[in-house]
TrEMBL record, chains A, B:
Protein name as catalogued: Polyphosphate kinase-2-related domain-containing protein
InterPro entries: P-loop_NTPase (IPR027417), PPK2-related (IPR022488)
Superkingdom: Bacteria
A Pfam family that the UniProt record links to this protein: PPK2
Annotated Polyphosphate kinase-2-related domain residues: 30-225, 256-472
Organism: Acinetobacter soli NIPH 2899
Length: 474, 474
């Protein structure tokens, strides 16, 4: 970023007027929740120590209604290969109508990591991180989370003067991020690095405290006031992918029960071993029509695992509070605090399947989702995760038979609802949605595997073999 | 607990029958959500190493639909003075319709802590913990979370034999909790300690693996099948407390603006210092009628604080997913991951105020809530927390004037809704509810302070003084 990256029109309102405008904008933002122009505001603040980011937020919080301005301050997390940069912050991303200021954020983590003397980041890696962060923020913006990034700057001379004057009792609020701010070389290095940030930062000079606070508040006001209607329609030039033959004709040779039992015994053991042996996180994702055998396949995967080794996520319609966030948010937050082996019975692909077919997402939203999903998966793959995506393909006739069988079996009767019958009517639309999904999200790093399931036994064996193939084995 | 604490009728069903029954019960539980007989099941498992708790849960998960049986395994947390024993587990307590098995739980933490050689717990403290845990579980049960506690036992001789035979490759699943299971003295000590647990544990002998798994599954089946209707009515012999005079006549001497400004300047500084200096967590809880000045008071408390030092929680109606849990659950989970200074603009007292007056809670529920709240606060106070509870008392006339003023002021207009006017109609019911609240929840450790607010200036000064009085100062 350049120092004059974003120039705000600042008329320097009188503080009372500014405070009134801020409160009006804050409540308008708050009340936008659930409406056509709803959005949220995420403010990332970073900067030179003692440039006054704390004071500026404090002043802002005095001008607004402090109850509706959440502040999140985290000590820096060193970026590591085991989790995406957004993971520690995901659950604090504001929902519609909310505004959150993050002192600790992915950029402060990046700077901390880059400055970490024992193993500094090189420029190429630094730039790659910045690019990824920007892409993530663009996804947030597309999903009505406005991201405002503010750098509080301070000259070397002023910083030294402020360090001389610092009040001892307040020192706990200037933890100095483990850096030596008396060291000119470190200061220069930080300045050099932050200039590699993107151009959409607002740079505020911390020299003049009044101007600083005012400029910061005006930037936030500006973001809160900007509540555009979200367009419903996107690009209409949509080329429908061809439905793969395996979806139209999911036949396969039947496997004898004896054969199946023998293979199953061997494979469940080998899969358990491979899942344990592979040091990466493993995500197995199942999609497919109802009754295609997702539950049965999952049962066989975990057969030889200890229940403490894995988590199964069964995905259904989002909760109301989840709808307040970007679609993928509920998956970001699920990945905190879970086992290394994660099995998804349906997944984020709901966005381009059921949400597309049932019009829960508009065209613009589901058409954008393929890229969002690919980026999400790439972030995970870059963080030591293997993603195994399996489509279980059943024929319409076989599904009907299984539905009838379920209705007759006491312990399966719960598994069938009117929705299931209703979904059958949109069979071809689901096939089309699946076809587009394969075409656009079957990446080199996370390809789809389609498995025919009209014969249950051979399908289960194929699922286990697919998983084995994707894992490192002893 | 005695070894035969709970004797289950076990006919030893055949495994297929048992599996069918389990699945039926599991779906019935799942589908109970939102209905009259809704509940959830929390299974706490502990026991002697290698007695087979992992295997028993694994077998259970094979018999049921594994997608709807969540398993949570945590390494033990040493119990410490800084957080209640339930804190690390609060967010994993199952909601209505759900079932969760916790391997790590407050009892395994208690045993770990007690066995911790450098600073062992004495029996009195151990027993006090057990008693607290039981009280917490009773609150869970009263709120439709069934708690099933299972101890997997194993004789010393069998344990030694199993340690001889243990498969090296599976050792990672027998972390042995940092204990030396070859040490007879330690084994005896664990046995001695767990016998101090309450009598409602199910003890399962791990000797015979088939019996063990079956008995465990039957215990869970038993819990899942038991879906009683929740009674709406409780004790009716309710003695209404007298409404304190300060609620009926919240007059006070008016404070001049100059005086106010002078006092405010001094007090905001002293409050900030005291909040920082006090090493305990601080919770300031505001309740009171609309427009009583909660927002204004909060603004003055945080005036001299850095925005990173505190969190403000503004409590309104629970979200749908929160209603799936015990009423206090959303407060339990809020206390994870927040600052040491926590300010509540309305709070858990909503249960005995708005929920009582508006019939969102039935009599049984709100009448029980006083004890639940007192226990909740005691757990916090025992964990180094000071709770400052302030009722801002406004007169009906003054409220009306403030409502009108709000409607006329652009930046306050958002603060007033039709609900606010409607609530005025129930003025006396709210006063009665407040009176009962004071009488039943003004404890020695966390008393209520009532502050008259018809004069805003003097009210704010009193709020600051009240906080100062409750804190340790330099």
């Amino acid at each position: 970023m350049n120092d004059d990256a974003i120039v705000l029109p600042h008329r320097h309102k009188n503080p009372n007027r500014l405070s009134l405008d801020l409160i009006e904008a804050q409540y308008a933002l708050k009340n936008s929740w659930g409406k056509k122009n709803a959005k949220s505001v995420l403010v990332l603040v970073s900067g030179i120590e003692l440039a006054g980011k704390g004071e500026a937020v404090k002043q802002l919080r005095e001008w607004v209604d402090p109850r509706y301005l959440r502040v999140k301050a985290d000590p820096p997390h060193v970026l590591n290969v085991n989790q995406p940069f957004w993971q520690p912050y995901a659950s604090f991303i504001p929902g519609e109508g909310q505004i959150v200021v993050m002192f600790g954020n992915w950029y402060s983590d990046l700077l901390s990591t880059a400055m970490h003397v024992s193993k500094p980041l090189d420029d190429t890696l630094f730039d790659a991180y910045v690019k990824n962060m920007q892409a993530f923020e663009q996804d947030l913006k597309n999903n009505q989370v406005d991201v405002v990034k503010v750098w509080f700057d301070l000259s070397w001379k002023s910083l030294q003067k402020r360090l001389d004057d610092i009040d001892v009792s307040e020192r706990r609020w200037h933890k100095l991020h483990g850096l030596d701010w008396r060291n000119k070389k470190q200061y220069d290095n930080i300045q050099k690095l932050r200039k590699r940030f993107s151009d959409d930062w607002i740079v505020i000079d911390g020299e003049d405290k009044t101007k600083r606070d005012q400029l910061f508040a005006e930037s936030i006001l500006h973001a809160m006031q900007d509540l555009p209607e979200h367009p419903d329609q996107g690009t209409i030039n949509w080329t429908q992918a061809l439905v793969p033959d395996l979806l139209l004709h999911p036949e396969s040779d039947a496997l004898e029960h004896d054969q199946y039992k023998k293979k199953l015994k061997k494979l469940t053991r080998r899969v358990a071993e491979a899942l344990r042996y592979d040091e990466r996180h493993v995500m197995v994702v199942f999609e497919g029509m109802d009754a295609a055998g997702k539950g049965g396949a999952i049962k066989r995967i975990v057969k030889r695992l200890d229940p403490r080794e894995y988590d199964i996520f069964t995905i259904s319609a989002p909760e109301k509070y989840e709808l307040r966030h970007p679609y993928l948010w509920r998956f970001w937050t699920k990945l905190e605090n879970c086992s290394d082996i994660r099995i998804f019975d349906r997944s984020w692909y709901g966005r381009v399947l059921v949400e597309r077919v049932e019009n829960f997402a508009n065209e613009r939203e589901w058409q954008r989702a393929y890229d969002e999903i690919n980026r999400f998966e790439k972030d995970l793959i870059d963080s030591q995760t293997v993603i195994i995506k399996i489509w279980l393909s059943i024929s319409k006739d076989e599904q009907e038979q299984r539905f009838h069988a379920r209705e007759k079996t006491p312990h399966k009767r719960f598994k069938i609802t009117e929705d299931d019958w209703r979904n059958r009517e949109k069979w071809n639309e689901y096939l089309n949605a699946a076809a587009d999904m394969f075409e656009r999200t079957s990446t080199d790093a996370a390809p789809w595997t389609i498995i025919a399931t009209d014969d249950k036994y051979s399908a289960r064996i194929k699922v286990l073999k697919t998983i084995l193939k994707c894992l490192k084995t002893t």
